Amino acid sequence: MGRFVLSPSTFITAMFVALSVSSLVHAQQTGITRRYTFNIMLQNVTRLCHTKSMVTVNGRFPGPKIITREGDRVLVKVVNHISNNISIHWHGVRQLRSGWADGPAYITQCPIQTGQSYVYNFTVIGQTGTLWWHAHISWLRSTVFGPIVVLPKLGVPYPFKKPYKEIDVWNLICTGEWFNADPETVIKQALQTGGGPNVSDAYTINGLPGPLYNCSHEDAYKLKVKQGKTYMLRIINAALNDELFFSIANHTVKVVEADAVYVKPFDTDVILIAPGQTTNVLLKTHGSHSNATFLMEARPYATGLGTFDNTTTAAILEYHQNRGKQQLPLLIIRPELPSLNDTAFATSFANKFRSLNKPQVPIHIDNRFFFTVGLGTSPCPKNHTCQGPNGTKLAASVNNISFALPTTALLQAHFFGKSAGVYEPDFPTGPVHWFNYTGTPPNNTMVSNDTKVVVLPFNTTVELVMQDTSILGLHLHGFNFYVVGQGFGNYDSMKDPLRFNLVDPVERTPLVFLLVVGSPFDSSLITLLGTQDGLAGPQWRGPQSEAASTTV
Q1: How does the average pLDDT of the chain come out, rounded?
Q2: Nearest CA to 261 among 244, 278, 236, 248?
Q3: 104 falls in which pLDDT band (50, 70, 90)?
Q4: DSSP bridge pairs for 33
Q5: How many other β-carbons are positioned within 10 Å of the β-carbon of residue 217?
Q6: How many CB atoms lie within 10 A of CB 45?
Q7: What order of strands is seen across the sheet that includes strand 33-47?
């Protein structure tokens, strides 16, 4: 799977990415089998002086980490002890011939019911770095999540000097969100009213809000380091919807991996990480003793008109004090983060990602799609009051279709040849109507609600152009992509491909991007192409930017 971060009406992005069912499925399993048990259970947790009973794995928030090596087989038995249905998604793991283990409820499996269990069985192939797992039904992922650490095969070195500490539990930096309310109640209310959900009460680092919030001075994650050492920090953004800036005061980090794929190293004072993304960085600590406490802070990058949690979470980086030395009061130093809407930084940061190795580029494209990604509206049910535009309900859509969740898992229906009445295999290859996505908004914003899918033969190479028309976050499961281009405005199928980077495009595992625009129908553009082995230059002309219509 691959990812990219986009944003506002001024950060209109063209992205070309690669998609295919790769020959990697034939890779030989050479590792060992690692077994874990996840007990889904309620646990009382207190943050911001507020105690609530919430869903956890093994009573922990965040949940336990999975440590494995490339080539290992992973077996996770999930036992459901709560009243909610549950499923677990292994975010970023290439599910090569193990689609049953991917985890999205009603897509690859039926959810695990109360009192039942399910064993996830998958092998980590061709990936090294940091991934993560989370619940994949409703908003349970706000509390049910944890890291996956994929080490290189035994005897295989890193493409950089081995860090002093690489898998210490304290070197995992997992950002998330805390709701004083029950997140399930929050999303249920939003779905009923058709408005935006209430925002979280705090962001967290490793489950703790940090000292910048009221009633949270002691609830701060602390990372203790030694002077003159190089540490690997594995950073995960488990927030529900928000891209986050992250920085460590008075320290520079070197980015070496993203979404379990090595990248050409580059130094930065700040990273920007979208929901679902992971980034490994090397932190070189100061060579001399410091009696300062350095804060590690994260806050959102946001440019749209919608509401969001406009707060800052903080953790503490502290140097070990030499024994016998007089303990001096510590000076607290905070980092300088970009402004909330710093699109220039976001663009510059995204452009720094390059693949460490030269990818193999396929020259044949089997299928081509143009997807408009937007936020439209649907009618308000009778006798209901809805909070969307003009009394409607907001509805995300692709090609004017808002997905209707089935009651039978799609993969199950497909496998047993019983898809009739479950889904329709005729998802449109492009929008029915074209319009200028950066121009005057259309008058008709209504979308249809259907369960439609694209069915592709094995080993298909796909070119996918994605044109944003509103606000949306997207995660595409089970594949890898190369991000080969970005730009501003509507996609130009004649000019933009000439600027694609086919030499060292970054490969991302989850396709995760957040499109945030200045008004409900400003637009951004993304272009996706290729295979897990590489990608080819486009041969399809596609729609022209001056096309117009009155329908999203």
Answers
A1: 82
A2: 278
A3: very high
A4: 73
A5: 11
A6: 17
A7: 50-57, 33-47, 73-80, 117-123
As a whole number of angstroms, the distance between CA 270 and CA 247 comes to: 5
Task: Give the C-alpha separation, 260 to 256, whole Å.
Answer: 10
Copy the structure tokens of residue 483: 């991000």
Entry field: residues in the chain: 552
**pLDDT confidence bin for 135, thresholds 50/70/90:** very high
Q: Tell me if 437 sits within 8 A of 520, measured CB to CB.
A: no
Could you tell me whether strands 313-319 and 401-403 are parallel, antiparallel, or unpaired per DSSP bridges?
Answer: unpaired
**How many angstroms separate the CA atoms of 398 and 212, rounded?**
39
Beta carbons within 10 angstroms of residue 186's beta carbon: 18
pLDDT above 50 (res 357): yes
Residue 174 CA from chain centroid, whole number: 12
Q: What's the pLDDT score for residue 142?
A: 97
Indicate the pLDDT class of residue 361, thresholds 50, 70 and 90.
low
* Separation between Cα atoms, residue 169 and residue 166, nearest integer Å: 9
Residue 125 near residue 96, CB atoms below 8 Å? yes
Residue 475 confidence (pLDDT) above 80: no
DSSP string, 377-409: EEPPPTT----SGGG-EEEEEETTEEEPP-SS-
Q: What is the DSSP string of 433-473?
A: S---TTSSPPSB-B-EEE-B-----TT-EEEEEEEE-S-EE
Bond before 520 cis per omega within 30 degrees: no
168: which residues sit within 8 A by CB, 6+ positions away? none
Query: What pLDDT is attached to residue 360?
Result: 75
Structure tokens at 278: 């992971």
Task: Look at residues 364, 235, 243 and name the one whose alpha carbon lies nearest to residue 300.
Answer: 243
Residue 541 has pLDDT above 80, yes or no: no
For residue 294, give both structure tokens: 């350095």
Beta strands in 242-291 (DSSP E): 243-248, 253-258, 261-268, 270-273, 278-284
Tell me the three state secondary structure of residue 99. helix
pLDDT, mean of residues 475-488: 64
